[in-house]
Design brief:
By secondary structure, the protein is an alpha+beta fold. It is about 60% helix and about 15% strand. Strands 2-1-5-4-3 form a five-stranded antiparallel beta sheet, with helices on both faces.
Length: about 210
């Protein structure tokens, strides 16, 4: 009986661990979405101000600083056609989205150009969050107000956060499993004392 209880409890513990990891992973993803949402809104404001002031050096510095964040694996500012204007990865500048940024979808760029709203989506592995923030570009010669909309494209890496989540779940499950085994061993010893010894005593009486 104790062995059966131990096995059943262990299975229940592992099932609980998988459920807990799923919940923690969802929380990690939601926290990342909120963080990226607020950060991209801030960057939109700063970048558009620098574009209006025609301060290219500060604009380059702003992109470089944002791109230096460890979780930011890719950052690029593209024009209305999807051509990379600026990037934390300088080799991407001058290339098209299709060639330089295969992770990103041109349809999403068109979507933010029409809606003027941030769009976010996970990649196929769900280990990276892809964000598209609309950016109002500089006015063309002869234009009174700018009407061209490009995009700030961000690839945010969730791998470190998810790794920490898994480590916490593993530590928790082994701690609980160890505690369970200690309790089960104590229960087996108690049953042996309370049941086995009286039965042995009765058996000795019968043998006599």
């Amino acid at each position: 009986l104790p062995i059966f209880v131990t096995g059943a409890f262990t299975l229940l513990l592992f099932a609980s661990a998988f459920w807990r990891e799923w919940q923690e992973t969802n929380t990690t993803e939601e926290n990342a979405r909120e963080l990226v949402k607020h950060r991209m809104a801030d960057e939109q404001h700063r970048i558009e101000q620098l574009i209006r002031s025609e301060n290219e050096s500060l604009l380059i510095e702003e992109i470089a600083q944002f791109g230096s964040i460890p979780e930011v694996s890719l950052l690029a500012l593209v024009d209305e056609t999807g051509k990379v204007i600026l990037s934390a990865q300088s080799l991407l500048v001058g290339n098209s989205m299709q060639n330089a940024l295969p992770e990103f979808d041109m349809e999403h760029l068109k979507l933010i150009q029409n809606s003027r709203l941030l769009v976010m989506d996970f990649d196929s592995s769900r280990n990276s969050l892809l964000a598209y923030q609309p950016i109002t570009l500089a006015a063309s010669p002869g234009q009174i107000r700018p009407n061209s909309v490009g995009g700030l494209l961000l690839k945010y890496d969730l791998t470190p956060a998810k790794r920490i989540t898994r480590q916490k779940v593993v530590i928790t499950i082994f701690t609980e499993l160890g505690f369970t085994l200690v309790v089960m061993v104590a229960l087996i010893l108690m049953l042996r004392i309370w049941l086995s010894r009286p039965l042995e005593y009765l058996q000795d009486l019968v043998n006599k």
